[in-house]
Structures are given as structure tokens and as C-alpha cells.
Amino acid sequence: MSQWQAPYLQCSCHFNKVNDVKYLLILLLMLTTGLPSARAQQLRGQLKILDMTANGGLNPTTGAPWARGDTYRFIFVTSIGTNAVSTVLSDYNDFVQSVANGSSALPQLKTVTWKVLGSTTNLNEDARTNSSTNPGVDGTGESIFLLDGATRFAANYSALWSAGKTNTVTISEELNEITGPVFTGTSGTGVVDSSQPLGNASGGVLHGECTRTDGVAWIRIYNSSSTSILPFYALSEPLVITPPGGTLVTLY
Questions:
Q1: How far, in Å, CA of 101 to CA of 64, rounded?
Q2: Could you say which of 3, 107, 151, 167 has the lowest number of CB atoms within 10 Å?
Q3: Angle value at C-alpha 219, between 216 and 221, nearest 5 degrees
Q4: pLDDT at 230
Q5: What's the average model confidence in pLDDT over 230-242?
Q6: CA-CA distance, 203 to 107, in Å (whole number)?
Q7: E strands of 12-67, at which residues?
Q8: Residue 97 contacts residue 114 (beta carbons within 8 Å)
Q9: If residue 31 lies in a helix (H) or strand (E), which one and from where to where?
Q10: Measured at the alpha carbon of residue 101, what is the angle toward residues 198 and 193, in degrees to the nearest 5?
Q11: What is the separation of C-alpha 243 from the centre of its chain, rounded to a whole number of angstroms?
């Protein structure tokens, strides 16, 4: 009776069996539990903007390599402005969404929901409630990045509404740099400033300076007339890390 032998596949580089096995084991290790960059190549971020090799390949919120199911968000400053006459926050949400929808540099922005970082006294609508970034209600949250895909603006929701920032929000939906005031009507903690909210007909509306990192100046520093034309900050819904071709789940 003849004996069956498992076929042995030889590669073109003529490795012997021992070296072939070593090579395959090393490759398997890199693809599954190895370098962050190798793992990142197996994953993708919703919108395909996030650079998962930046920051050492680590998710700043968890301190671990990016993994399937991790979430993050993007923030930008609009390249165009509008006035702050309305007392209805949904009008400003509609504005930043329309700006995102019209981006020619990043047309994929229109596939997700964007909310304004702004506050009005109507129904006590404030920025952190509108954007679901209230640490006491929405939890720790996720890291927030600029649209360059690599620059982190805030590590989580508490950091978003804390004084002092390392980076500025000066990148627009068209990936150009914006400088100057930005309408917010918001205090440094993300709640409405009842004396200078969006829609304030007298006394002005609070604005931040998008080039500032000191204190809470990025969101609150001076005021402008509600009829002035200024840009606004837009924050995305939470976005999800998936395998290539994986199913995306919206958490907002």
C-alpha cells in the first residue's frame, strides 16, 4: 500500500522548509498581534480620513493601538460664515451641515451628521448638549481630530470643555486655513452664556478665536454683533473603526 504525503509548496525564493515556516510565522505575527502600523493597514476609519499610523499608531483615548469598534470624531471651522440672528439652534446645525455637504475637498463629509458648537437661550440649548459631548451625560467620549486626520484637538469630552489646548481648530471643510473670530454664544464649559448667546439682539454674541490655545479663548473671548458674518465650529457624530469592507455603524 502506498503512503500519502502532504504536498509541500516551495516558494520561488527557494527557502528550505524550516525557513519557510519561520517566515510564515513572522508574517502572521505582524498581521495579527504585531506592529501598530501593520494592524492599522487592516483597519479603516469611517470617511477614510483618520491617519491610524499617526500618534504612534495609538488611539489617544484608550492608549492602545486602534482596534475595530473604536470611535473618534472630527471638528472643523466653516470656510464661510453666516450671521447669528436666529435663536433656534437647529438653524445653525443646518448651516454647518450644508457647509459639510458642499465640501469639494472632502465630499464624503456629507455622509455623516455635523452639529454646531453653539448655544442659544431658546429651550436652554447649549453646545455640549447639542453635540452630545456632556461628560456627565454622554460619558468619557472619544478623541476629536482635525480634518488633516492626524492632529488631535481633544482627548475626550472633558478635555474638549477644559481650559487650554495644544492645537487650534483652523482647518476648514475645504482643508484651507481659517483665522479670526468664530461665533459660539458659548461659555468655556460648553453651556450657554445667557448674556451673549446666539440670537442675542442686543449686547452682542460671544465668539472665540480659532487661532488661540490659551484658556477657553478658542470658544469664548469677545463678542460681535449678531448681524456680523462669521464662521462656526462643526463637530461630527462619533465615527467608527472597521475592517476594510466592514459594516459601518453610526452611533450618534
A1: 33
A2: 3
A3: 70
A4: 98
A5: 97
A6: 38
A7: 44-45
A8: yes
A9: helix 17-32
A10: 15
A11: 19
